[in-house]
Amino acid sequence: MMRFIFIAILCLSLELLQHRTNAHDDAYCLLRGEPVPKRDDYTYFPGVGGYKLNRVKKTWFDARVACEEDGGHLAVINSPDEAHSIVVLFKQAEEIHGFLDVAFCGFHDLFREGEFLTIHGQSLERAGFDIWHESQPNDIDNSQNCGGVHYGGTFNDLRCDDLYEFICELPDVDENDA
């Protein structure tokens, strides 16, 4: 029941985004607000952003809520530079915790099979990055509808209800904050 309510709210939010009368229709502009202060539990990449690889496994829906409660959102990869930053994040985590293959990030095809959207309502192509891991997306058993990022920085489709680590992103970091 909770998943149905979540999906209904998400659908309504996306519908409202599509019908905005604002001349600037880029969904990313909705994230721009007051910069958030830097935090010790995030890794920062100059000109790219702040990220945290959460090693506690959650479903995609629970991971999304956890990132939002943390003041950010599931990571949305917008460029090859950002994908490279995620690769570095995986390597840093491997040195401390051991190898990790894939983690949830902020995209899905919950509304229409094969039409992957970021959590902000943009197509992956429009968001700026749409590079998939070999043989992906494969939608095994018609059940892989949530987004993941492979340790090599490429996308993978995953089952939303499976448990994976996940990557949170801070939306706008105050570069002057020490």
Task: Give the CATH class.
Answer: Alpha Beta
Rg from Cα: 16 Å
Number of strands: 8
What percent strand? 15-25%
What is the 3D shape?
globular
How many helices? The count is: 4
- CATH architecture annotation name: Roll
Summarize the helix and strand pattern as letters.
Answer: HEEHEHEEHEEE
Distance between the termini: 43 Å
- Average pLDDT rating: 81
CATH superfamily: Mannose-Binding Protein A, subunit A
Explain what this protein looks like in three dimensions.
The chain is an alpha+beta fold and 178 residues long. The chain has one domain: Mannose-Binding Protein A, Chain A, CATH 3.10.100. The protein is 28% helix and 24% strand. It is globular and about 45 Å long. About 12% of the residues have low confidence.
Structure in a nutshell:
The chain has 178 residues and is of the alpha+beta class.
Record the SSE blueprint:
Layout: H1 2-18, E1 43-45, E2 49-58, H2 60-69, E3 73-74, H3 80-97, E4 102-108, E5 117-118, H4 124-127, E6 144-150, E7 155-159, E8 164-170
Parallel strand pairs: 4-8
Antiparallel strand pairs: 1-2, 2-8, 3-8, 4-5, 4-6, 6-7
